[in-house]
Write a structure and sequence with these properties.
- This protein is 37% helix and 17% strand.
- With 217 residues, it is α/β, with parallel strands linked by helices.
- It has 2 domains: 100 residues, Response regulator (Rossmann fold, 3-Layer(aba) Sandwich); 98 residues, Winged helix-like DNA-binding domain superfamily/Winged helix DNA-binding domain (Arc Repressor Mutant, subunit A).
- It has a 4-stranded antiparallel β-sheet, with no helix packed on it.
- Strand 1, helix 3 and strand 2 form a beta-alpha-beta unit.
- Helix 2 runs parallel beside helix 3, helix 3 packs across helix 7 and helix 6 crosses helix 8.
- The longest helix has 13 residues.
């Protein structure tokens, strides 16, 4: 930690895997150094959840196992780099800098989004509809929209939403939370599930946010 600070970084540390996962999902970080042996959650599970929920977040795996199969598995799961213990601080800092250099600047998500029939002000948490009505969003509804709108046109699974918005590991979790929030959002957006203009259901896979850059009339 001291070496990272001395190199100009501002590290945050978690001793348990579940605590680290919660921080990584809710905080605004440039990179994650992930030890594969942690109490609370295995490094493999954390890597799966983080990569699903935060596909733009760089992750460097730290492990005592240098077997080729494990390195390949880690890279296939989405690790950006793989550092085998024991390693020098000089090597670790060089790898951190290299990953950060090749990672594009990340956006916290759109502030406002136009869709067919209205517009969303993410900061004010309001929806303005073409008919003049304005609807307020709850904090969690706004977070769901920010998460989906930042990935407009992409299919986002329920598991990604649970991990990215609620900070929950989706493994073995049976909940209708995501579906209920999508239903309420459709009502507030004036959206029709059968012929959706805004929140499209991709059956068996998840949801897509249908944004448009056309100006409102």
């Amino acid at each position: 930690m001291d070496a990272l600070r001395a190199a100009g970084h501002q590290p945050t540390e978690a001793a348990r895997g579940d605590e680290g996962l919660e921080q990584a999902l809710s905080g605004n970080f440039d990179l994650v150094l992930l030890d594969m042996v942690l109490p609370g959650n295995t490094g493999w599970e954390i890597l799966r959840v983080l990569r699903a929920a935060r596909p733009e977040l760089p992750i460097i795996v730290l492990t005592a196992c240098g077997a080729e199969d494990q390195r390949v598995d880690g890279l296939k799961l989405g690790a950006d780099d793989y550092v085998v213990k024991p390693f020098s601080l000089r090597e670790l800092l060089a790898r951190v800098d290299a990953v950060l250099r090749r990672t594009p600047a990340r956006s916290p998500g759109p502030v406002s989004v136009v869709f067919e029939g209205g517009a969303i002000d993410m900061l004010a948490r309001t929806v303005s509809l073409e008919n003049g009505n304005a609807v307020e969003l709850s904090e969690k509804e706004a977070e769901v929209l920010v998460f989906l709108a930042a990935r407009a046109g992409q299919t986002v699974s329920r598991e990604q939403l649970l991990a990215g918005v609620w900070g929950l590991s989706p493994q073995g979790l049976n909940t209708r939370t995501v579906d209920m929030h999508i239903t309420r959002l459709r009502e507030k957006l004036g959206d029709d599930a059968s012929r959706s203009r805004v929140l499209k259901t991709v059956w068996g896979r998840g949801y897509q946010f249908q944004a448009t850059h056309e100006p409102l009339p």
